[in-house]
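#struct-help
A.M.: can someone run this one for me? Single chain, 457 residues.
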Amino acid sequence: MNTYSKRWPALNFLITGAFLSPLDYFIVNMALPSIKKAFNASDHQLQMVVAIYGLTYAALVVCGGRLGDLYGRKKIFTLGLYTFLISSLGCAFSPHITWLIIFRLFQGVGASLLAPQVLASIKVLFSSEEQPKAVSLFSSVFGLAAVLGQLLGGLLLSMHWGSFSWEMVFLVNVPITLICIIGIHFTMENSHKETNSGIDFIGSLLLIFALLLLICPLIFGQKYQWEWWIFGILLTGIALLIVFFKYEMYLLKKGKPILIDPTLLQHKPFALSLLIIFFYNFTAGLFICYPYYLQQFLHQSSMQTGIAIVPYGVAFFLGPLIVSKIKLAPQTMIYTGLGLLLAGFIFSALAFYTHEKPSLVTHITLFMAGLGHGTIMPVMMRTAITFTTKEKAGQASGLVSIGMQVGSVVGGVIVGTLFFNLIHIIGFPAAFSAAICTIGLVQLVGIGMSRRLQQYI
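D.P.: on it. Structure tokens below:
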């Protein structure tokens, strides 16, 4: 029986700190027009404001999980909070767009230290009976961030705060991080610290460069019209991933410190879980296409755009909370979540193709898709960490975070590229319908993989 009495209060502050990572993604997107005007920034610079955060986050998140294993999750989580706090202040008071991009990089570093500690701490601090509820609470913050990021961003930008405008989307992080720093200090123990182990610096660099070489071409490929060298960089990234895996196998055989235990990736059920996580995160494409469609085709304001995403975000928030109350087999919940995503996006595509504008029908279908997202996320997180030991919890949670981040980037690129290329061929409504229909159809891959996972659950 778990005897750590403060685990639930600690979880509240862990979740609140982790909430900063997705919130910052959504809220900063809302401020891009104001940032462009304030700095007279180019579209490429604005793209870097968004991309550098996601790139750093994705590339370093496994390192963040490993640091938690080595030095204790309380210490690394607190370090992440301080990094996020200082970099948020740096963003708000940046004198030039270049400085804003630099501080956004450090925000990504902070986020990479925060996210993996939560799932790993749940694995360590909570009993197997308590973990479903804890994971569901953690998963719900992503849906809440989707709602609040859009609405809060629109609200902060529409209000007058003296000489501040876009700066407020960064300053709002300050009180949240301060509350978390104080709360974690009094409620969390420095759970699970490995001894007599070092850091795999070479492995860390190999993984970071491999992920950067994979993600950067996906983000900037459209800008450079998918020149041949873009694919060359992608292939180099894949080659580096293979080198990284072989290097970790070599270190494991030699009994030396490793970044990721390669046997985790060789464990078929865990690998299948990561692939399902990767594919359902193609839902990120919705947040690229939908705001653009509403503002450029329907000429809606930023606040109207924020409100339009509420049905999806509310359902995304409620899904994990509902899952924690339902006592069904994990496989049943996986099929339910993926099925809702599949049906929700396909029906949404049909509704927009027919009527073009958001309506009660599209609110219902997007709510269905959001509920599917909120259902599948906690089930897959819980399923993935079930296949690992407490000693490998940090590495496993880092890999889960990478699956989510890379899935979001790849999904966003594929869906976004399809959408923007089809606009000039078949028009806005048909292009948007095709894009979100693709998100739904991709879930068929996840359903196929979940059938193979079934024998291990």
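A.M.: thanks! DSSP finds 18 helices and no strands in the chain.
D.P.: also worth noting: Residues 248 and 258 are 6 Å apart (CA to CA).
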